[in-house]
Design a protein that fits this description.
Number of helices: 3
Radius of gyration: 38 Å
Number of strands: 13
Helix content: 10-25%
Strand order of the largest sheet: 6-7-12-11-10
Largest sheet: 5 strands, antiparallel
Structural class: alpha+beta
Shape: rod-shaped
Oligomer: single chain
Strand content: 35-45%
CATH topology of the largest domain: Elongation Factor Tu (Ef-tu), domain 3
């Protein structure tokens, strides 16, 4: 998933010039003229004109500086578009399929498993029998039992069965297990 973020970048030159003009405005703000034996003469009109000129320049540079701002858009990519679900299957949570002794199954509802993940995304399922010290990605065979997974919109079903699928062989119910389901987004390409 990509989001658009807006950033503004302005011309730093206008900001520097504006600062320089303000600094000059607060430096000498009057002129003193001495002629012979007369006292000092201050020309307030010159100071007044200097302030008007400075204000005009500040206004001009502010407009110039702001007009040089531009809007830029950057793609912000979601750093982790995956969703992970972890849950435990107890020994008694497995179900026998009617008339089949070599296979048991467990179905878990996952409402976030939408048609998008079924058709375009990715669904990965792993199982742990050692308290999450390690995981085996399904399908796998562990302790003489073959584990596989089937998923559809809204749920996954994990199967545990005799690896040879021989009728008449009854498997023991699996030990309690921790299941990790990861839903991943992907860039879908239908055909090459």
């Amino acid at each position: 998933m990509k989001n658009k973020r807006r950033f503004f970048s302005c011309n730093i030159f206008g900001v520097v010039i504006l600062g320089a003009i303000i600094a000059l405005n607060f430096s000498t703000s009057f002129t003193v003229i001495q002629t012979g034996t007369e006292n000092s003469i201050i020309y307030p009109k010159l100071m007044h004109m200097k302030k008007h000129f400075t204000l005009a320049m500040v206004g001009f540079l502010a407009i110039l500086g702001m007009s040089s701002c531009k809007k830029e858009y950057y793609d912000v990519v979601n750093p982790n578009p995956n969703t992970t679900y972890v849950y435990t299957i107890g020994t008694n949570a497995w179900q026998w399929e009617s008339g089949v002794s070599h296979q048991v199954f467990h179905t878990k509802a996952i409402p976030e498993l939408t048609e998008y993940y079924l058709l375009e995304g990715n669904v990965s399922v792993a199982i742990s029998f050692d308290g999450e010290n390690s995981y085996d990605i399904l399908p796998t065979t562990f302790g003489g039992i073959a584990y596989s997974v089937n998923y559809t919109v809204g749920s996954i079903t994990i199967f545990a069965e005799d690896p040879l699928a021989e009728p008449g062989i009854e498997i023991n119910l699996p030990d309690p297990a921790v299941v990790k389901v990861v839903l991943s987004e992907s860039d879908f390409i239908r055909e090459f």
